[in-house]
Amino acid sequence: MLALLAIAMVVPAPASATTALGGCGTSLPGIGCDTNNTGTDVTIDGTNDTTVDTPDPPPPPPPPTNDGTDGGGDGGGNGGGGDNTDTEVIYDPRCEWHPGVPRPDFCFDADDDTDDEDVEDDPEPPTVVTATQVLSFAPPTPSVSSEPDGVAIVGMPMNVVVPVSASSSSGNLLGFPVTVHFTPELLDLDYGDGTSVEVAAESATWESLGQAEFTATPTSHAYQQRGTYTVTARVLSSAYVDFGQYGTVPVTGLVTSPASTTSVRAVTADTALVDRTCAEYPTGPGC
User: What was the pLDDT predicted at 48?
Assistant: First the structure.
């Protein structure tokens, strides 16, 4: 009995068991253990908590915005892609082209970023045309005559006749095909003796007017001295330009035609008593 007791007493639990296991809860994070030494048995209870607290992921970055300050995009490692956001195009019916209708200035905004192909606007005709610009279209040179035929008696009216009528002429004006229409308004008459007048574009023969020879008319003139004179006539016409599909534009001022001339010989008349007329006696005095 004493021998067995001695043996039992010399078999104490190894001191190193506690030492070897002691601190098992400190050498590995998340591992806990509990030891129980009864002298003959050593019981080890251990738990291993593998749950690891991880932080919440960061929120996603905000979407890119096009505020006009960063035109380069992510130019770095991605090769500088830039901002390819399409520009919204706003339709305005006032910007449609119609013949002869001007469009607002904003329709021609140079900063328009639309991808539409630029289309050159059709030229528009002028809104003002002057008489000088249509001189090449001037009405034809008028004919001019006097009565009696090329002869005048000093101190007595001789009559000038310039037939006129409306006319038209076609051609190109400022790059546009046009037709210019003329309406005679005035006659400019220079009688060659320093006298000139502007009268209404109406002239006629004495016979057409129902008047006797050597009577005054709106276009007649009496020379005061003998001689040969040159009568010059010009027609002044109002006009308008027909631009076809673009409409018509009145011409500012009167358009003057090229000049036309005729010669008049002024003579004196002497009276004498004769017994027979020139028809009866062609070789008589003054015949």
Answer: 53
- Strand bridging mode 129-130 / 248-252: parallel
Among the listed residues 100, 64, 109, the one whose alpha carbon sits nearest the alpha carbon of residue 85: 64
pLDDT greater than 90 at residue 77: no
- Nearest to residue 144, comparing CAs of 157, 163, 158, 159? 163
pLDDT of residue 45: 56
* Tokens 């010989």 found at: 265
Domain membership flag for residue 248: yes
CATH number of the domain at 193, please.
2.60.40.10
> Cα separations (Å) of 131 from 56, 138, 242, 260?
87, 9, 14, 20
The Cα–Cα gap between 205 and 156 comes to 16
CB distance 128 to 193 below 8 Å? no
Is 187 in contact with 164 (CB distance < 8 Å)? yes
User: Does 95 score more than 50 pLDDT?
Assistant: yes
Average pLDDT of the chain is: 77
The distance of Cα 170 from the centroid of its chain, to the nearest Å, equals 25
pTM: 0.54
Per the structure block, which two tokens stand in for 243? 């631009």
CA 210 to chain centre: 58
| Tally of structural domains, the chain | 1
Helix (H) or strand (E) holding 173: strand 167-173
In a domain, 11, yes or no: no
The radius of gyration of the chain from alpha carbons, rounded to an integer in Å, stands at 60
CA-CA-CA-CA dihedral for 129, 135, 138, 140, to nearest 10: 180
Query: What's the angle, vertex CA 279, arms to CA 276 and CA 280, rounded to 5?
Result: 45
More confident residue, 234 or 273: 234
Full domain range(s) for residue 205: 129-267
pLDDT in tens, 128-176: 999 999 999 988 888 999 999 999 999 999 999 999 999 999 999 999 9
